[in-house]
Design goal:
With 325 residues, this protein is α/β, with parallel strands linked by helices. It contains twelve helices and 13 strands. It binds adenosine monophosphate. The site of adenosine monophosphate (AMP) has 17 residues, from strand 2 and helix 9.
Amino acid sequence: MGRPYTGPLRFRAVMSVTVVGSIAFDQVKTPFGERKRMLGGSAVHFALAASFFDDVRVVGPVGDDFGEAEYAALRSRNVDTSDIEHVEGGKTFFWSGEYGWNLNDRETHDTQLNVFGDFQPKLSDESRAADVLFLANIQPDLQREVREQCVGARFVAMDSMNLWIDVAKDSLIETIRGVDCLMLNDDELRMLTGRPTLLSAAREVMALGPKVVVAKQGEYGAALITEEGLFFLPAYPLESVLDPTGAGDTFAGGFIGYIAAHAGDEPEGHLLRRAMAYGTAIASFNVEEFGTDRIQRLTREEIVDRVDELQRITHFQNAPIELRT
Ligand code: AMP
């Protein structure tokens, strides 16, 4: 096994990441409990995770129901909320879903776009100047409007979901053409491309433009596909999972946050593999409790321990053996 890195930590400038995506109230039921209204949304889960690596700015609208407690949850992790637009008289995006015993399987009961219905993103100069941009899950036209305002971004990644493949596929494909990295659930990747295998689906996506494809596989982990080849990492093994909501966005926050933190390095090879490990480690904390509760108490040391543990459990030493004919 590779020896643990014991040299000094390199000094690095703090990089900036801008994220657009849903800022939400979630109602979630799992076999282990139920919450009627908790802070959620793809941009929120992403931002909290990425905040361990970079300066993060969230872009998106909220309504009158989004109060000080919600802002405080973001600000306590130093997430910049100045591009969160408060729509007077509006209601915040609302999502409700339920999980059965198979936590990879969820049913959406309700999606209310509310203030996202006629949102027109206007980014501040600071958000526009971000080094790295993440288009978290939201209507693909909105993702593209933000993409077009961040002309100088070094690396742009995006997520989406089955709903947008169903109702806005052409727009979604247009958005995919403008990014460097697509992160989707495994089955959504097949659904988007109509290809039956992960590899053929990823190739189809890469032909549109992205050089990096990440297929999220729930409790089985995630796969990374690039021109260089493939890399698979299992999810961090947990005894107990209370609420998988936001795991994908938290994974993305760790993955993209790690890439953004390495401004001088090309996003390829082992850097992407390490980014997968950080995303996996942080996502594993997210699912241990409801909503954003666990991530809000998370420490740097806890993240590092789980990354080390992931390295241990995925490593094996090969040795020659004479195989029989
Ligand atoms: P994940 O479990 O990582 O796929 O993300 C769950 C989060 O996505 C929840 O916090 C929801 O608020 C948010 N979400 C659910 N449906 C949508 C949608 N149609 N557009 C944007 N965000 C959504």
